[in-house]
Amino acid sequence: MTHRSVASARVPARSSATTVALLAAHDRLRNGQATITDGKVSVVNVAREAGVSRATAYRCIELLSLFERVPKAGVDESKAARSQSGDRELRAAVRQLLSRIIVLEALLETRDSEIARLRALLKPNGR
Asked: What residues does each domain of the chain span?
């Protein structure tokens, strides 16, 4: 067994379909189109809207990156505002890259399943 297969056996991979469902649920909540929850944008509500567990949602880095950090009490508000405005460009770039990653992961999953299907056709007598 290779090192990669040992690692993947311990930590199940979250599918890109789950990530897409979480990000779509987040978008619905942000657009005021909640179907299951009260419409508040939170990780718990996103999980409910996507039909996955809270644990799955909290492991989705792509989703967590969409939630802005709340400044701590006592932090200079003007400094926090400057920091947030500077971060908007970075967040937009991160969102764009995450979307691209999700699309590429979905393409890889499709390609992998097609390869598996073709290999099964090549095996004589289903071996």
From this structure: 13-126
pLDDT at 127: 55
Per residue in 54-107, pLDDT (tens digit) is 999 988 888 888 876 544 455 555 665 666 667 777 887 888 888 889 888 888
Q: Is the pLDDT of residue 2 over 60?
A: no
Residues 32/39, Cβ–Cβ less than 8 Å: yes
Torsion sign over Cα 70, 73, 74, 77? positive
Written as one string, the DSSP assignment of the chain is --HHHHHHHHSPPPPHHHHHHHHHHHHHHHTT--SSS-S---HHHHHHHHT--HHHHHH-HHHHTTSPPPPPTTS-HHHHHHHHHHHHHHHHHHHHHHHHHHHHHHHHHHHHHHHHHHHHHHSGGG-
Tokens read off for 95: 């969102």
Sign of CA dihedral 45, 47, 51, 53: negative
pLDDT for 13 beyond 60 = no
